[in-house]
Amino acid sequence: MAISKKNKSRISVDGKEYIWWVFTEYDQTEFDGIQVKAVCVDQTHFIKYGLQQKENNSKVVLALKNYNKLVHLSSPPKFENDEGIITKIGINRMIKWCKQNVHEIQYALDRNKNDLTEPEKQLLLKDLQKIIL
Q1: What DSSP element (H or E) covers 95?
Q2: What are 104-113's pLDDT values in tens digits?
Q3: DSSP 43-86
Q4: How far apart are CA 42 and CA 10, in angstroms?
Q5: Of the N and C termini of the chain, which has fewer Cβ atoms inside 10 Å?
Q6: Does the model's pTM come out above 0.85?
């Protein structure tokens, strides 16, 4: 299914094209309030981040398009600027941060299995990272 490009921005990170936008949503997603979603143009995966998260419980979601596989990566840096606004620079930093080798995983889902051991979570993350590289 195509993604409407209206009110969305484009960015290229390490040779992959993404469409990204900021939106507000409550009770429907991992984040309540203002959030950003960056979807790879081939629609294999997306990254979501809630703006203005509490520092002790912040996360980034890296997922396949159909939510069959996803990880919540703990303790990301703030990607928005001091005014709470995320820009192209912040989106670039967010995507590159997800590609880093070491992450603490807050939650993981592999199809219907969400009780993964820590080694299984790390393997799942490596599988997802292969897609975003």
Answers
A1: helix 88-98
A2: 999 999 999 9
A3: -SEEEEEETT--GGG-EEEEEETTSSEEEEEE-PPP-S-TTS--
A4: 13
A5: N
A6: yes
